[in-house]
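Dear colleague,

Thank you for sharing your sequence with our group. We've completed the structure prediction you requested, and as agreed, I am returning the results in plain text so they can be pasted directly into your records. Please verify that the sequence below matches your submission; if there's any discrepancy, let me know and we will rerun it promptly.
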Amino acid sequence: MGHTRLGSIPKSRKWAVVVSGVMGEASSEASTSTPTRINVDDLARETLEAAQGGLIAAINDTGLIYTFFILTQIALASRKDDWQHSLTRIGIDLPEEATLHDLTTGMQGAIDDFLYSQNRVTDISEMAQKAAGEALATLASDKSTTLFGSALSEVQTAVHDLSTKNGFSDLGQKFFGLFMARFLNFYLSRISASYINGNSFSHIGDISRFNNVLKNHCEQSAFIVRDFCGQWYSKTEYLKGISLRNTAGFIAVALKKLSAEMKRQEIGQ
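Please find the predicted structure tokens below.
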């Protein structure tokens, strides 16, 4: 702001290369009094090391757990004839003319209500909420008429495609990829300050371009949990139903897998 491997990770830019893309520009923008050239490899390594520790600490974050739980419940609700009422039961009240945008907004509101009631709002929970909203909007928008102009029944059809084992695998990978992008950027922006005379990383370089590269890198890295997401979702719902408690267990394993992937990238840079 990721331990068993399931399949091969698609080829992507090394983390150090991702960092160097923007840090090269940052170096040229830094003060001429900077005594040494920015060491991208060191910066990349320190970021991964810090993020690994932060990721393990996030295992028990209530906001992260509840956000992923809500994603499962939205997917499962789309299978029901009473889709609208099923959403109401998880705190999302939408009219018949609601759009995909309304659904993602309602999801954020439901998560906020829960977290404020528990006094559990954290940086991690905010990252998770944003990642969930973007993941749902990105994957479902291709299926609905438009992001702002489709009826609730069409939104249900779009989300229903994400409620299958394969569909939820895609949703899980997208969610964790977007979450990891925010998570790594969080650490990178802070650690980079010591490399550039204390300037914040968030104000240097071509941030828009870098964020796109970072998202792509993290989504490819999150492939490590893709099949795990779909398998857990399908099997757990079939055998005993998905609950907040077993979602917490899933999140713990998923984050350990992602953390191990970070370690692999750190060693293999």
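Summary note from our side: The mean pLDDT is 81.

Kind regards,
the structure core
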